[in-house]
Inverse folding.
């Protein structure tokens, strides 16, 4: 099961970076001109929005109903988003598809981390946590390569068709794996009494049965054939209506199926209406069937136990933060023009979330989730790690293009590749080390290496990036950041009750993403301040080269030095963030000594 999850995480992580290469072609494909980059920004920002805002709710739902069902749902959402994006003929459809891709792909990471905690005891979690972290970071390497390979032989839509095909394959794989696991445990389940666990539920654990808590007889018997037919019919009709195959549109006999009943409303085609009717029939069937494929009757109780209002408030707060920084142009501004209002809305939503946390019977984030020092410490460390990491990923290529003569985009990417390849290696190494060494020490040592690497980068200038020493700096920094991944995850999971592993892992991913978004803007603002300070002392070309002001190498060199000074200031700020992460890991991730309650009512799924 972990292998299937890892493939899904790799696919979603690669999709985060593949947009960099595909965006120009996507803009043309959805009807935008090459100079309308601002209108295309939602293709990136909506993916990030979906990635972040739904994580706490999805994590909590996995605590309530189990991991398998949520993993399957996340893969289905990711596949649906890939289908919509691949078939989009307008900007709106592509934006919705990218949001669903972010929501489904982002949900895979925290649920997989929680699944690792369910399947392995604390002393054996290191290697699987390292593998999950390595796969996630590997996406940053394979994403651009995957995109370039596909674009070399096909158009941008092929990228998302491949995502759709792999997503559906993974859904089928998880269904088979779940069926196998259920069959293997049926004998044990039927001979085990539930009396011993009747009073063992933790106070923070919601009173909703998980997948493993339900009697095995509920899974036996004749499957819901009618429900399956309705569901498959709805999926096929809806999929064909979205894709609109050319052969079907050109068909004299069947082309009418794709002609809207109401002009200008594509959703009113006979095929779309058929899909909607079949979907409605599927919902009714699942609400009334004796053995439904999807037990929709549990939905109200699941949402109550997962605290949907609290998740809505927290999602709104996170969404405001994401949009504040994700749509800003780092080269010109700290935040988007609407940033102050978005942050004000986030503050109001966060206040509403805090109020809801105090009043809800089953809050989104139960009190025991981040009460222990290692738990909230892991969130803080993850925040600073994200802020430091993004500076390397964004600014090293810029520095390479600035200081390496004749360097283009590919050359700059190859320089960064040294760091990106070392990241997953460090993640695996960190997972192996925490089986023998304290997680706090491994994470602190890793971030100390990252700090040293960033400190060395802050001294790079014209003439750098041309020797083995600079390659070593990038590799050491990558290994350092990678080393910290598994220890931080392990410290969080060891300090939180099993009944909250899903939402705790989601908060950890959110902390890193917010750190990356806010860190990019804040560190870039620091760098721009340094740039403007240096530029004020640069004379105009007419003064420096009065004879040839349009061809003034001295002026070009001065401007280059100003850009280098900007990047040096950015790397210095990132080094401070990495040092704070190292200090936080050393002081906060040590076990607090308080036992963590592990209720028996929460299942892996």
């Amino acid at each position: 099961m972990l292998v299937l999850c890892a493939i899904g995480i790799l696919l979603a992580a690669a999709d985060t970076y593949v947009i960099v290469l595909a965006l120009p072609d996507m803009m043309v494909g959805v009807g935008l001109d090459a100079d309308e980059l601002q209108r295309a920004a939602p293709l990136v920002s909506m993916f990030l929005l979906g990635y972040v805002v739904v994580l706490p709710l999805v994590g909590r739902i996995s605590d309530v109903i189990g991991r398998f069902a949520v993993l399957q749902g996340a893969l289905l959402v990711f596949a649906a988003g890939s289908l919509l994006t691949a078939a989009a003929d307008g900007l709106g459809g592509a934006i919705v598809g990218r949001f669903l891709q972010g929501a489904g792909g982002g949900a895979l990471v925290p649920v997989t981390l929680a699944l690792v905690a369910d399947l392995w005891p604390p002393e054996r979690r290191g290697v699987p946590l390292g593998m999950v972290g390595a796969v996630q970071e590997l996406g940053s390497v394979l994403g651009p390569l995957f995109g370039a390979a596909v674009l070399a032989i096909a158009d941008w839509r092929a990228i998302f068709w491949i995502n759709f095909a792999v997503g559906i394959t993974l859904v089928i794989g998880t269904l088979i794996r779940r069926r196998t696991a259920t069959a293997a445990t049926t004998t044990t389940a039927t001979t085990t009494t539930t009396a011993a666990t009747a009073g063992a539920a933790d106070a923070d654990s919601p009173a909703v049965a998980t997948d493993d808590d339900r009697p095995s007889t509920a899974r036996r018997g004749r499957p819901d054939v009618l429900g399956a037919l309705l569901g498959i019919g709805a999926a096929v009709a809806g999929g064909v209506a979205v894709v609109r195959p050319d052969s079907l549109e050109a068909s004299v006999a069947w082309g009418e199926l794709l002609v809207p009943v109401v002009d200008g409303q594509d959703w009113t085609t006979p095929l779309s209406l058929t899909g909607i009717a079949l979907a409605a029939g599927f919902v009714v069937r699942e609400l009334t069937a004796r053995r439904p494929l999807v037990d929709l009757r549990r939905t109200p109780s699941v949402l109550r136990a997962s605290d949907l209002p609290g998740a809505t408030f927290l999602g709104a707060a996170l969404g405001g933060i994401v949009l504040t920084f994700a749509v800003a142009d780092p080269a010109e501004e700290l935040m988007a023009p609407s940033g102050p209002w978005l942050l004000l809305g986030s503050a109001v939503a966060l206040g509403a979330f805090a109020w809801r946390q105090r009043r809800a019977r089953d809050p989104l984030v139960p009190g025991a989730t981040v009460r222990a020092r290692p738990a909230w410490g892991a969130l803080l460390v993850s925040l600073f790690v994200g802020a430091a990491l993004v500076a390397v990923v964004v600014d090293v290529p810029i520095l390479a293009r600035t200081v390496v003569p004749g360097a283009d985009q590919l050359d700059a990417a190859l320089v960064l590749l040294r760091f990106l390849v070392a990241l997953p290696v460090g993640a695996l190494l960190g997972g192996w080390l925490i089986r023998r060494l304290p997680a706090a020490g491994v994470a602190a040592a890793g971030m100390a290496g990252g700090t040293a690497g960033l400190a060395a980068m802050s001294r790079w200038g014209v003439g750098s990036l041309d020797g083995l020493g600079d390659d070593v700096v990038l590799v050491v920094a990558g290994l350092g950041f990678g080393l910290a991944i598994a220890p931080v995850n392990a410290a969080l999971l060891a300090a939180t009750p099993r009944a909250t592993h899903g939402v705790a892992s989601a908060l950890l991913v959110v902390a890193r993403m917010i750190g990356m978004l806010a860190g990019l803007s804040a560190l870039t603002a620091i760098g721009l301040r340094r740039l403007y300070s240096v530029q004020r002392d640069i004379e105009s070309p007419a003064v420096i080269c009065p004879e040839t002001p349009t061809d003034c190498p001295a002026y070009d060199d001065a401007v280059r030095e100003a850009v280098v000074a900007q990047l040096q200031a950015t790397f210095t700020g990132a080094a401070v963030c990495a040092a704070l992460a190292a200090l936080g890991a050393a002081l906060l991730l040590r076990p607090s000594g308080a036992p963590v309650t592990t209720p028996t009512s929460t299942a892996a799924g």
